[in-house]
Write a structure and sequence with these properties.
heterodimer, A: mainly alpha, 2 domains, two-stranded antiparallel ribbon, globular, B: mainly alpha, 1% strand
């Protein structure tokens, strides 16, 4: 068995193990024969350990053989042969193990495994146990596919799985209205960002004729590629990808959804918004980083958004009154800094920063439910309440300015308010106006009230809450 | 003339008609349901047989063995080709699953005999390429819903006005085309009338209100079966696409694009589930039209793929809504219903079909949506991006509806509400097709690509023949 065959086999195992987990959980639920908790737990461990071991084996072989770029070709998922061969449409299934994807995929398996083990106790005998693990398995598969994607279409595939599982897990406690509303908000932001991603993918197809990263970022393994685009093309595609990354990583101006996402159970908050999902935007920028080098203005835009996000999150995190939101904004501060590093071309530093930060936040978020207990233990040990000294800014800043910053931070930069006021509400008003015009038109044609749906009873939310 | 091994097509068309004659004499609704199920099941088997037989012939078109219709009505009266081959079993499947998933609580209201008549008309239309045959069958399809609206004592004026307009424009437009002969390009009035007819039947804004009115007043099953086979798109492919100049196709594309975005936005603000479904369907059927009218190999293939995927997924989506309505009555989207705990399988299926309709990865709609966006952007680089925007709005609307119906509160019910066995069968069948088609899309895409190339070849042939004829006429006039 030669090295290439070993790589190929191990590569397929890395992708197949989370895919098998999804298939088992999904099929058993669909046919009405759901797995028991213990079986789900076993499958979680098995899929994670098998995938992780295969990924580590690939890493060791790569280090031993000094191979830095291992493409795993699975052929074309779909191919259409057009009369002009260079216009052929193909959906190429390709995964790449390189210096970016291998650390990221090992990190994903490690953290998903940790959170999977934690959840089996944390949600033990919860009615939504199975539902959590279905979303979790989709998330794990999405992360692995995104990390290893060798073409922009494959990356989009994984990217979408991560988005859907995130939104559904935010709404995990779905018998209450607030988590559901927040889940929808997260989904809406993701979808708008995903639209930018899809347009970027199509634009790349038209500009280069391929969605393959090897063609896109030139020959040479990451991070030494050279993009085959002009500066203007790189700016156009790069800005679209920046919007996609900003949506996924909650960068400014999309940061409003991050604290809302904390409505989900603690394990999902840890894995999604502390560790992996929130770094996915940064990962995308790292993957296409040769494009950033092609355009000064694109790099400048990346640095600016990173700086704005870091500053915004740093201010906002100081006034949060619950630990998960405080940690979420603290995460965002670091993500902003990571984006700045990427914009400045410090790719290895950004990658190391992501790995360290993800591990730290996972630990902090998993400890969050027992924070008060820890705090009390600490105070009991020292025998008095913890003292809080005034910080530098508190001492030097005028009271009026401090109050303004406080309001700004407590309202989370008015980002959600602005989006609602200037985009959502006007859009909704126009549509409702159109709806009223349609009603008048059908009433006129039918010679009376035309909508039976107006008589459908509506249960007010207050009544629904009382029923709980 | 290539022939199938059996008269599949004639049997497929005649079976539901005979079934209708039998069922209309049955007084007991439960017995009528069982017989209808049997007939639609048999029709589905025959339609699948026609498709499979055609597939093995490796030809673009085929006629029935022992064809008794062609000598009377012409070669194009009953024929199967690359376009219609998968559409026949798809339509038959929709009728079968709708009958199968009709609960006992609804059997008294659902018109089984008329449903079988509708099935005959839809299958006959899909097997017909003769222009006047297609026009006649499209016109006849409007009768069963009209009869049902009258029987339920509802106003038929909105539906009637739009359908009369559609039939008048279609028949008038085609009569003018025939009067003009095989010249190219045809007069703007003839083409304009055909375009307007297609837009009315497809429900393009602002002539879409008949569709919302139909869903308001007819039974959900009848309304679903009237719109989901997408007869408007079929009329566009058979009647408009071969003869229309580029400006006409661009007009349909741009109006469809507007409708796709408009309807997606409207789906977001609806306060009732049926109306939400109509707008979601309108947005998707407009996306199909966009693909059909951009007339590039990729765009047309995408349009044909989305036709199949939307037909499957939104029919499943509609059937789930119908199952919910059968248990709780009309559903408001202005509040939360929290039905998940009572019907997890229906909730999962609702989400699966909704995601498939928007082209979510791993479902049957994914590759079609990608091709459609590629095709639209290729022809209209910036405007085409609105397709992506419409898809994004649709996806938000789908999850919004899911959350409203299945979450947000704890629903209290004294009776079990979960899916019954026939509904489970329907759910599993459609789920298998949606996920199977998503994971292994190549055969479907290639088949649609062949259909697209053949449609484009026919169009080129027709337009070049028309140009030659026009040049010859001009030359003769010059000589005179």
């Amino acid at each position: 068995m030669n090295t290439e065959t070993i790589f190929h086999t191990l590569g397929i195992i890395v992708v197949a193990s989370p895919a098998a987990f999804v298939a088992v959980l999904g099929l058993t639920s669909l046919i009405g024969r759901p797995l028991r908790e213990s079986a789900i737990e076993s499958w979680t461990y098995a899929s994670t350990v098998v995938g992780l071991l295969a990924a580590i084996a690939i890493l060791f072989i790569m280090l031993a053989t000094d191979i830095r770029h291992v493409p795993i070709e699975l052929g074309n998922w779909v191919v259409i042969h057009l009369p002009e061969p260079h216009h052929n449409f193909h959906f190429h299934l390709k995964f790449v193990f390189d210096r970016l994807s291998v650390p990221f995929v090992i990190l994903s398996f490690l953290l998903c495994g940790t959170v999977g083990a934690f959840t089996s106790r944390y949600l033990h005998r919860e009615s939504g146990y199975r539902r959590f693990y279905i979303c979790y398995s989709l998330f794990t598969l999405g992360m692995i596919v995104t990390s290893l994607a060798g073409t922009i279409e494959v990356l989009f595939f994984g990217w979408e799985l991560v988005g859907l599982s995130s939104a559904l897990l935010v709404a995990y406690f779905h018998e209450r209205i607030a988590p559901v509303k927040n889940g929808l908000r997260v989904w809406a932001v993701y979808r708008i960002a995903d639209a930018a991603f899809l347009i970027a993918a199509v634009a790349l197809h038209h500009l280069t004729g391929e969605g393959d990263f090897d063609v896109l970022i030139g020959s040479g393994s990451w991070p030494e590629g050279q993009a085959s685009l002009t500066a203007n093309q790189a700016l156009f595609v790069g800005l679209l990808l920046l919007v996609a990354a900003a949506g996924k990583s909650a960068l400014v101006p999309f940061s409003g959804w991050l604290p809302r996402a904390m409505e989900g159970p603690t394990p999902s908050s840890a894995i999604f918004y502390g560790a992996l999902s929130v770094h996915l935007g940064a990962f995308l920028l790292l993957r296409v980083s040769p494009i950033l080098e092609m355009s000064f203005w694109l790099s400048a835009a990346v640095v600016t958004i990173g700086l704005l996000t870091a500053a915004f999150a740093s201010i906002t995190t100081r006034v949060q009154t619950d630990i998960k939101s405080a940690l979420a904004f603290a995460s965002l501060t670091q993500v902003g800094i990571i984006v700045v590093e990427i914009g400045l071309g410090l790719r290895y530093i950004a990658l190391i920063h992501i790995i360290g930060h993800a591990c730290l936040r996972t630990l902090q978020l998993l400890r969050a439910p027992s924070l008060l207990h820890d705090y009390h233990t600490l105070e009991n040990a020292i025998g008095e309440h913890m003292q809080h000294e005034a910080g530098l800014w508190q001492r030097v800043m005028p009271v009026g300015l401090r109050s303004w910053f406080y309001c700004f931070a407590i309202e989370r930069g008015y980002l959600d308010g602005c989006l609602d006021r200037f985009i959502v509400y006007p859009f909704r008003r126009i549509l409702l106006f159109c709806d009223s015009i349609e009603r008048r038109w059908t009433d006129f044609l039918s010679g009376g009230a035309s909508r039976e749906s107006d008589e459908v009873p509506v249960h007010e939310e207050v009544v629904e809450e009382l029923r709980l | 003339m290539v022939q199938l091994h059996l008269p599949w097509l004639e049997l497929t068309i005649i079976t539901p008609l005979i079934g209708a004659l039998i069922v209309c004499r049955v007084r007991d609704p439960e017995r009528a349901r069982r017989r209808t199920m049997l007939v639609t099941g048999l029709t589905l088997f025959l339609a699948v047989g026609a498709w499979e037989d055609f597939r093995t012939l490796h030809t673009f078109e085929a006629h029935d063995h022992w064809d008794i219709v062609s000598p009377w009505l012409g070669d194009d009266a009953v024929v199967v080709d690359e376009l219609s081959a998968p559409l026949l079993p798809l339509a038959a499947l929709l009728f079968f699953l709708t009958t199968l998933a009709t609960l006992r609580t609804k059997v008294r209201r659902f018109p089984f005999a008329w449903t079988l008549v509708s099935q005959t008309l839809v299958l006959a239309m899909l097997s017909c390429r003769a222009p006047w045959g297609v026009i006649g069958l499209l016109a006849a399809q409007t009768i069963p819903p009209l009869v049902e609206l009258r029987a339920r004592g509802r106003s038929t004026r909105v539906f009637l006005v739009h359908m009369l307009l559609f039939i008048g424009l279609l028949a008038g437009g085609w009569a003018m085309i025939e009067a003009e002969g095989p010249k190219s390009p045809h007069s703007i009035w003839a083409i304009g009338m055909l375009i307007a007819a297609v837009l009315v039947r497809s429900g393009c804004a602002p002539v879409h209100c008949w569709m919302t009115d139909l869903f308001e007043n007819a039974t959900l099953g009848t309304a679903l079966l009237f719109v989901t086979p997408m007869a408007g798109a079929y009329a566009a492919v058979r009647l408009v696409l071969p003869i229309a100049p580029d400006w006409a196709l661009q007009t349909i594309s741009l109006l469809s694009l507007f409708t796709a975005v408009y309807a997606a936005g409207m789906a977001l603000v609806q306060r009732e589930a049926r109306r939400f479904f109509v707008y979601l369907f309108l947005s998707h059927s407009s996306l199909v039209l966009i693909g059909l009218e951009v007339v590039t190999p990729i765009g047309l293939t995408g349009g044909l793929c989305v036709w199949i995927s939307v037909g499957l997924s939104l029919a499943g989506f509609g059937l789930t809504l119908r199952a919910l309505e059968a248990r709780t009555g009309r559903l408001s989207l202005a509040d939360y219903h929290g039905l998940y705990e009572h019907m997890p399988s229906l909730a999962t299926f609702f989400l699966l079909t909704g995601l498939a309709s928007i082209g979510f990865p791993g479902t049957v709609g994914f590759i079609g949506a990608e091709l459609l966006v590629e095709g639209a952007v290729e022809v209209y680089p910036y405007v085409g991006m609105l397709v992506v925007f419409a898809a994004a709005l649709n996806s938000i609307a789908v999850l919004h509806a899911y959350f409203r119906l299945f979450t947000g509160t704890e629903h209290t019910a004294s009776i079990p509400l979960n899916a019954r066995l026939p509904e489970r069968i329907a759910i599993l069948t459609l789920s298998a097709l949606i996920i199977g088609g998503g994971l292994y899309p190549q055969p479907g895409v290639v088949s649609r690509y062949h259909a697209a190339t053949e449609i484009m070849a026919r169009r080129s042939k027709h337009l070049s023949a028309g140009s030659a004829s026009a040049n010859q006429n001009k030359h003769t006039e010059d000589q005179d």
